[in-house]
Amino acid sequence: MNNFTIARIIAREITGGALTGEEEQILVAWRASSPANEACYMECKSHRSREEYTRIVARFHVKEERERLLRRVRRGTLWRLYRRVAVAIPAAAAILLLVGYLARLPRDASPRASAIEANILPPGSSKAILLVEDGQLVMLGGNGDKLLSRGGPVRVKDTNNTLAYSLVEGDDAIESAAGYNALRTPAGGEYRLALADGTLVHLNAGTEIRYPVTFAGETREMELSGEAYFEVAGDARPFILHVPGATIRVLGTSFNAKAEAGQSLVVATLEKGSVEVTCGRESHLLTPGEQLIYDRESGSVETRVVETRFYTSWKDGYYYFEETPLEEILGMVSAWYGIRVTYAGEQVKRITFSGLLNRYSEMNALLDMFEETNEVSLSIQGKEIAISKKETGQGNPAARQREPL
Amino acid sequence: MIDDNHIQRIASGNTSLFGELFASWSEPMYYYAMKLTGDHDLSREVIQESFIAYWNNRAAFNSALPVRAFLYAIIRKQVYKHARDERNHRRVLEQMPGEEETSNMIIITEVNRQVREAVRDLPARTREIIERCMDGLKAEEIALEMDVSINTVKTLKKNGYKALREKLGHLRFLLFLLSITR
What is the pTM of this model? Predict the structure, then answer.
C-alpha cells in the first residue's frame, strides 16, 4: 500500500475523522504486516512526534532558503537560455547577445524558409511632435540642434533627441511664464524630455505628456497617457503625475508609468526612491522593486515585487526578459514596432521566453528567436502577426528536460 | 494550497509559483531530511538540491502528488550519495536507515505535516483544545487546564473536529487521485 494513503488515513484518525470500513481495513492490515509498521503507527499517534516535528522545522528558515533557491534557479535559467540563443548564431556573435546583431548576419546559411523574412518590421526611431499652447505644432527628430523658444524666461532647445527646457539665468519673470506644452510620440517613436526642474522623462512609443513650461506653483504636476520612464529631480515641491484613472505622487525617484489609451491597465514600476499611487479611493506606497497594477475597469489593484529591469530597460535601448510570458513580451514591444498581435488560444500566450533584444533592431530578430525555440508558429501580414502554438514539432524538450537524475 | 494547476504552471517555467511551492512544502521535506541525517547543514543542502532537481525536470510533472513523491525519493537519494562521498563512508552507511525505515519516515512526516496544516487554520482557542485532545486529555482535564467551562470545551472540540474532517477528506477521493496520477 502506498505511503501517502497510509499517512492520510492515520492523519484522519488523529484529527478525529471516522474512518470508512475500507480505510480501517487498509490500516489494520498495514499495522499487522510488520513490527516496524506498528512502531511507525504508534510514533505517528504520539505527542512526542508532533512536538519533535515542531521543534525540528523551527530551525529551517523557509524565507531565506527560498531566496537562495530562487537565486540559483534564475541564474541557471538565464545561462541556459543564453546558451540556447547562442546555438542559433556563430560563436563570435554570441558575445554580446544582442539580438540586433543577429539580424545583420547573412541568412542564406539557414535552410529554414521563414515566413518572417519577406516582411521586414523595422524598429521605431526618435521622433515626436511638440504641441505649443497657441496651437502650433513642431515636428521633432532627425538629430537637429535647434533653439525653439522665442525669448522669455525659458529656453527650449531640441538637441540630441531631447527636448530641453531651462530657465534663463538672472530672469525674475518666471511667474509670468505659466502655460502648458505637450509632447507626443507616434507609434514607433520615442523621445526624451528634460523639464525645467531638471527632471528627465523618456517617452516610449504612442505616448503623450502634458506639462507646465515652468514650475511656478507649489507642486509639479503633469499628465501622461502611454508609457514613460521618469527620473525625477529632487525638489521641495511634490511631483505629481496624473494618468487616466490614477495619480502617482513622487518623493524623489526613478519609476516607469504605463497607462495606454484603449487598455484598462495602469502599471507603475518603481526603481528607486518612493512613490505613492492613488487609484480610486485607495493609496499605495511603493518601495523600490515594487510594481502596482491597477485595472481601471474592474477596479482591482495588485502590488508585487518584480525585476524592474524587465519594465524599464527599454529606455536604455534594449528589452530584457526572463521567463516572461509571450503576451507580456509582445505587449511591451508592440507600440514600438507598431504591430498588432492575435493569438490562437490562451495557451500560446503563456509560453515563456528569456533573452535580450536590441530595441533598435528589426522586429524580425525577435520573431526569429521565437521561431528558433520551435514552440510557436508565426504568420505575418503587413503589421498583423498571428501566433499559434506549434502542433507537430516536439516543442523543445531539450531545453527543459536536461540533467537526468 | 498547491494544486495540480499550480504544478502545471510551474511546468511552463513560472519561478514565483515555484517559490510558493517551496514555501509550502520545504518544511516537511527538511524534517524528513533531518530524520535521515540528523545534520542541519546537510539537510539544508539536500533540500536545495532536491528542489533544483524538480525544477530541472518540471516539465515532466502535471500534478502535485507525484512531485511530492519525487522530492522524497530525491532527498533519500541525495542523502545516500552524500554518505557515499564521505570519507568515513562505511560508518555512515551502516547508520543509514533501510528501505522500510525510510518509507515509514515518509509516513511520519506526512502525518505530521497534514495534522499540522489542518490544525494551523483553526481559531486559536479551538486549536489549543484540539491539540490537547490529540494528546489524549479528557474534556474535564482540558477545561481545568484552560480555565473554561466543560461545555465550552465540548462545543469547540466538536466544531474543531468538524472543520478538520472537511480538511482531510476521506480515502475514496484520495484513491481516485492516486489512480489518475499513476
Answer: 0.47
